[in-house]
Amino acid sequence: MEKKYAAAVDQGTTSTRFMVFDHGGNVVGYHQLEHEQIYPKPGWVEHNPMEIWERTQEVIKVTLEKYNIKPEEIAAIGVTNQRETTIVWDKHTGKPYYNAIVWQCTRTKDICDELAKDGGQDRFRPKVGLPLATYFSGPKIKWILDNVPGVRAAAEKGDAIFGNIDTWEIWWLTGGPNGGAHVTDVTNASRTMLMNLETLDWDDEILNILGIPRQMLPKICPSSDPAIYGYTPKDGPFGGVIPVCGDLGDQQAALVGQTCFSPGEAKNTYGTGCFMLLNTGTKPVPSKSGLLTTLGYQINNEPAVYCLEGSIAITGALVQWLRDNLKFFEKSSEVEALAKTVEDNGGIYFVPAFSGLFAPYWKSDARGVIVGLTRYINKGHIARAALEATAYQTREVLDAMEKDSGVKLAALKVDGGMVYNELLMQFQADILNVPVIRPKVAETTSLGAAYAAGLAVGFWNNLEDLRKNWLVDKTWEPKMDPATREKLYKGWLKAVERTFNWVE
Q1: What is the 8-class DSSP label of residue 363?
Q2: Average pLDDT rounded to a whole number, residues 223-250
């Protein structure tokens, strides 16, 4: 039967979805289900790995039935995932020894502080491109080995194995205890703090320091792998044999879905926070400006492509705050109409350092401020300043990226929920002084994973094929004069300084 589709399992922080795409990159079917967020203690966040696997099977089955898609019509399957979330399980039974420890979980703070005593926060950065932080998987694995009885002995014996969510999903999709593939890709491995950026292999020195047995780690593969990770069994959720051969962390999958294949191309995903990735080519660029050096993707056995990543904590979450805490409007989408009731921000700035500042500052003692208030200010000005905050924070990350990489951005490709806000997108173009481009297919994360899988089996021939699929929905050109741009941005930087050292 003719291969008509490439598909993706998209396992996110709050939900799992399965999406099927045709050769033109159009969505032909999907289903999505949420899973429980578990908070055992303040700052601790967990997921139930078995619940995630059950949801995965369900979204696959419902999509195939609802859209009448046959397994033999699917050329290949890719996986994309919430990054850094950590699972350790028994390879003979598939039973997790403990819940998944989620990327947002802060329980490993003491482990990170202890490690930083020798060599500081950047102790491993030259090798792995990351600071010591609770965000990454390595310290989470160490926590499970140190705190869950019997796991260390099982790991040393080769029975307990580790994976981020991509590894867990691929292992189950390819048979689980009956010969499931224990693999990850370079992008997910680059978020563990255990992979050497130069060798693209686990770093023995770091494994030694953290006390992690090498045999519990998955094999590191290309993101798009013609050698195929494994095949779905007939008695699995697909009811047929399909190659599983694509794997990308969610932000990297969006980079591929946006076809940012040339150095200097960047994408920004506007969600609860913002994640900007800049393609820096086939050599890792160390950051001196508070960014992460990470893997972008590796197609087949070609050289891996690296990225600089800037993470911003609060963007869309600020609009939710205006809605829920200040009751400015009922729906988040109404922020634009309110912001349009005024001509400009009235001289105020809103810096949303609610939980400190992320890139490029990494200051946990900062707190949010609204500065420049006068009797003239009304709700409209505050709504407008809240939207502008997202654009200013993006400019700060972009400035850091250009400084680190020496690459000048030509245009910014955008995706995520906030990209339908016209006022914000125009202001973003104005403050960056580059065109801002929204694509036709907004599901760039799932699409990127499907692309990785489809490339591995020749469903798409090359990156050029994917570029042809990428269509512009809308472009915002910068219209602001240079003097105004610099005056506004200078005001923002002054406002940011007012947030520093607030917590004594």
Answers
A1: B
A2: 94
User: H-helix or E-strand containing 49?
Assistant: helix 49-66
pLDDT tens for residues 376-389? 999 999 999 999 99
Residue 178 CB burial class (10 angstroms; 0-12, 13-18, ≥19)? exposed
How many CB atoms are located within 10 Å of the residue 293 CB? Answer: 21
- Cα separation of 123 and 100, whole Å? 26
State the CB neighbour count (10 A cutoff) for residue 70: 13
Outline where 246-378 has alpha helix (H).
250-257, 316-324, 335-339
> Which DSSP symbol is given to 417?
G
**CA-CA distances (angstroms) from residue 90 to 168, 206, 342, 348, 415?**
11, 24, 59, 55, 38
Closest CA to 407 of 278, 296, 299, 300: 278
Among 288, 274, 358, 281, which residue's Cα sits nearest to residue 317? 274
- Cα separation, 25 vs 325, whole angstroms: 40
Range of lowest pLDDT (185-189, 352-356, 450-454): 352-356
Residue 495's pLDDT is 97
Q: What is the mean pLDDT of residues 125-135?
A: 90
Residue with tokens 């798009």: 224
Cross-strand pairs, 276: 268, 310
Quick: pLDDT tens for 473-487.
999 999 999 999 999
Number of Cβ within a 10 Å radius of residue 406? 10
Helix (H) or strand (E) segment spanning residue 430: helix 422-432
Question: Mean per-residue pLDDT for 273-296?
Answer: 91
- Please state the length of the chain: 504
**pTM for the structure as a whole:** 0.87
Whole-angstrom Cα distance, residue 315 to residue 418? 9
**Closest residue by Cα to residue 266 from 277, 257, 256:** 277
What pLDDT does 151 receive?
97
Span 188-230, pLDDT tens digits: 999 999 999 999 999 999 999 999 999 999 999 999 999 999 9
pLDDT in tens, 163-188: 999 999 999 999 999 999 999 999 99
**CA separation for the pair 321, 21 (Å, rounded):** 35
**Closest listed residue to residue 46, CA positions, set 103, 6, 118, 90:** 103
Rounded to a whole number of angstroms, the distance between the first and last alpha carbons of the chain is 67
Q: Residue 288, exposed/middle/buried by CB under 10 A (0-12, 13-18, 19+)?
A: exposed
Q: How many helices (H) and strands (E) does the chain have?
A: 16, 23
Taking phi over 0 as left and psi of -120 to 50 as alpha, with beta for the rest, 135 belongs to: alpha
